[in-house]
């Protein structure tokens, strides 16, 4: 087996995964580009019930009456592998100015449902809950892995979002190298906590303050106002389009109370989260029929414990525009739909 490797950019310090074996992945979108509703069962789908022998042996499954309704398996075409290592320390190799290391880590596929066709908004709340609880269980499972502190859970839906399989699934990667986006978020959140931003507000979580301001704006001006960005709320969570949204209809789901680590979520909270997630996707689907999207869980690295300044959350990014030269060259984004306008559209079409 040919393993991937990690290479570090000598200028930015960012690690890049060179994963040639990923080009061998199957592609289910060549026929309909993911826009036509797929069947509820596909005999050729490696993730459908009855084809369990086509995936690596499962790591975890939730079963009812002997039938699974959510399961996790190792990725058959991994970008990271627990077998990829130089020695017990997984050390780097220096080649002049360049640094490389084996792509040591974990790469898993979380099969969210036995149904081949049911996206999140179509499922029973219990099924959405099982997906979210599986996220928690898989994160906990990697707490004992030495060196794999940086864990990412994400969902790609549709060819525009980079998915290669139609069957609803998420992925988990665990790696020893830091992730630029999470590092940037945590550093920014810590600066806010220390009072090192323009607000000079000390001892506060920026995400908690963001949630409070979004709810106060909604309550003061009304859900249909030109200032409101909140699209859903329940006892534990609030969903809103962030003030500086990078993409049209970008939506965040954030706990109302301070929580930095997703693994601390309680059974009651995950039920509430399932209701929230389903409601958000119902609204997005009504506004953007058959849209492709990415959903990413942002949570602290493993074994960090509770942090006062960081706050876990989900970010949902509909893929309805393309990233072009400006975004690639500058690292900044142009959003053609103001979040206030997008929120108003979501609320009016629900």
Explain this structure.
By secondary structure, the chain is of the alpha+beta class. It is 24% helix and 21% strand. It contains six helices and 14 strands. The strands form two sheets. Strands 3-4-7-9-8-13-14-12-11-10 form a ten-stranded antiparallel β-sheet, sandwiched between helices. The protein has a four-stranded antiparallel β-sheet with strand order 2-1-6-5, with no helix packed on it. A hairpin with a 2-residue loop joins strand 5 and strand 6 (98-102).
Helices and strands in order:
Elements: E1 5-8, E2 15-18, E3 60-64, E4 67-74, E5 93-95, E6 98-102, E7 106-111, H1 125-141, E8 150-157, E9 169-175, H2 180-193, H3 206-221, E10 230-233, E11 237-240, E12 251-255, H4 267-287, E13 293-298, E14 313-318, H5 325-330, H6 339-348
Antiparallel strand pairs: 1-2, 1-6, 3-4, 4-7, 5-6, 7-9, 8-9, 8-13, 10-11, 11-12, 12-14, 13-14
The helix/strand order is: EEEEEEEHEEHHEEEHEEHH
Give me the secondary-structure category: alpha+beta
Overall pLDDT level: 89
As a whole number of angstroms, the C-alpha radius of gyration is: 20 Å
The CATH superfamily name of the largest domain is: HIT-like
General form: globular
Helix content: 10-25%
Distance between the termini: 49 Å
Number of strands: 14
Q: What fold name goes in the CATH topology slot of the largest domain?
A: HIT family, subunit A
Low-pLDDT stretches: 29-34
* Number of H/I helices: 6
